[in-house]
Specification:
Layout lengths: L4 E5 L6 H14 L7 E5 L5 H8 L5 E5 L16 H6 L4 E4 L2 H5 L5 H13 L3 E6 L3 H5 L3 H12 L12 E4 L13 H19 L2 H5 L3 E4 L7 H5 L6 E4 L6 H8 L2
Helix pairs in contact: 1-2, 1-11, 7-8
The chain binds phosphoenolpyruvate (PEP).
The site of phosphoenolpyruvate (PEP) has 14 residues, from strand 8.
């Protein structure tokens, strides 16, 4: 039986006051389930607010949208992995397509960030995905697997087994255009095979959740989760409305 993982990426939405209202509305609808994992990833300014608004709802975790490659220092505007952990985050998004394409984050930086996350007790959620041009050139799988290998390049010992991966085709993020369940399944299968190669033990590689992200809604989430190699979803736009997010998590 799959234990699906639902991750809400609020992006730059919901400051502390709105975040508090969201959590109260969401909790009034969403009853704790033991058969799934729910994670809310607010902007850094709302992290502590979301953690305290969740209170005793330990069935819901909180994550951070980005961490810096360095542990501390003169990096105005940045958040370190240690600070995020201290504020209550348990997970860190790494290599989100907006970080890669809007902020120029490189594969090398994602590798450092994944390692930093582990050093500070955060689970890295490594995001990978091809652009439409790369897909049209037939390079989707090679791009995604290269990003996967590069992001995990600095991990040591048992760390690779503790990662979470999200396949998010860039052309599907925020566009209303979702990958078909069959396309998502095929890419997830390729990612799983690569993880098995890297980790060397099929049983351990099978335990790594591989999420799909890109225009997931309450209407299409079930068809995506039904395919064999999709273990959960990473949701942007539809996660900022508590009713929609409840409908997705209650699927
Ligand atoms: C995302 O930001 O990771 C994402 C998948 O966004 P959306 O659901 O809006 O496509």
């Amino acid at each position: 039986m799959k234990q699906p993982v639902f991750v809400a990426n609020w992006k730059m939405n919901h400051g502390p006051s709105e975040a508090e209202k969201f959590v109260s509305r969401f909790l009034s609808k969403y009853k704790a389930h033991t058969d799934r994992t729910v994670v809310i990833v607010p902007p850094a300014a709302s992290l502590s607010t979301v953690v305290s608004a969740l209170g005793r709802r330990k069935d819901i975790m909180v994550g951070v949208q980005n961490i810096h490659t360095e542990a501390k220092g003169a990096f105005t505007g940045e958040t370190s992995a240690e600070m995020a952990r201290d504020a209550g985050a348990k997970l860190a998004l790494v290599g989100h397509s907006e970080r890669r394409h809007v902020f120029g984050e490189t594969d090398e930086a994602t590798a450092i960030k994944c390692a930093r996350a582990f050093e500070n007790g955060l689970t890295p959620l490594l995001c990978v995905g091809e652009t439409i041009q790369q897909r049209d050139r037939g390079e989707a799988e090679s791009v995604v697997l290269r990003q996967l290998r590069a992001g995990m390049a600095n991990l040591k010992d048992s760390q690779p087994r503790g990662i979470v991966v999200a396949y998010e085709p860039v052309w599907a993020i925020g566009t209303g255009r979702t990958a078909t369940p069959a396309d998502a399944d095929a890419m997830h299968e390729a990612i799983r095979a690569e993880l098995t190669k890297m980790i060397g033990v099929k049983k351990d590689a099978t335990k790594i959740p591989i999420l799909y992200g890109g225009s997931v809604t309450a209407e299409n989430v079930r068809s995506l989760l039904e395919v064999g190699h999709v273990d959960g979803v990473l949701v942007g736009g539809a996660s900022i409305d508590p009713n929609k997010w409840n409908a997705i998590c209650s699927t």
